[in-house]
Amino acid sequence: MKRCAPIKSRETINLIKEAYRAKKQEKDLLLFLLSINPGLNIVDLLKLTVKDVKNKTGLVVHQDGLHNRIIPFDEEVSTLIEYVTKDLKLSSLLFISCRNMAMDRVTVSDHFKVICNELGLDESISAGSWRKTFGYFHYQKYQDFAYLNWLFGHASMLQTVEYIDIDDVNFATQYQEGLGL
Q1: How do residues 127-149 score in pLDDT, each as one tens digit?
Q2: How far apart are CA 180 and CA 173, in angstroms?
Q3: Rounded to the nearest 5 degrees, what angle is found at the Cα of 97, between the Cα atoms of 96 and 100?
Q4: d(CA 84, CA 119)
Q5: 3-class SS at 181?
Q6: Cα–Cα dist 121/115, whole Å
Q7: Cβ atoms of residues 62 and 68 within 8 Å
Q8: Which helix (H) or strand (E) holds 59?
Q9: 35: left (phi over 0), alpha (psi -120 to 50) or beta
Q10: What is the value of pTM for the model shown?
Q11: Class assignment of domain 1-181?
């Protein structure tokens, strides 16, 4: 089995979103979006209750010894939350299986593997790719390894570079262009 890799194409992300919609798997789609957009860990998301998200504009994320972060919901996520939570009690877990049990990481991975197989995606794409996808796109937009290193709790920048699968070509380009000082 290949090492888990980030999804590096917006087109692929959109195909995955459409596949979830076509299969009427709104909860799985919501979980996918809550992971790839702010880079949250799937295990942490599976602990969310309806009360944590219903009628809210963002998700409060508690971080060890630090101030809480509020991650705002975009329109797509807000609409999904409204749809997914409409018949659920506030005390219910947000992500429950069809048997009314708490979803686990294995179930999420299995559902995502079906989607990936149907779309003919590389086997290195898995539910473990979701946070890496956030990291990859965050780096592409902001070039901020320090934030990603902190968010992922990595011991070194090299660990972060390997985690989000950034190749050396990007670094070579930066050195070739230089700062022009």
Answers
A1: 999 999 999 999 999 999 899 99
A2: 13
A3: 75
A4: 24
A5: coil
A6: 9
A7: yes
A8: strand 58-61
A9: alpha
A10: 0.87
A11: mainly alpha
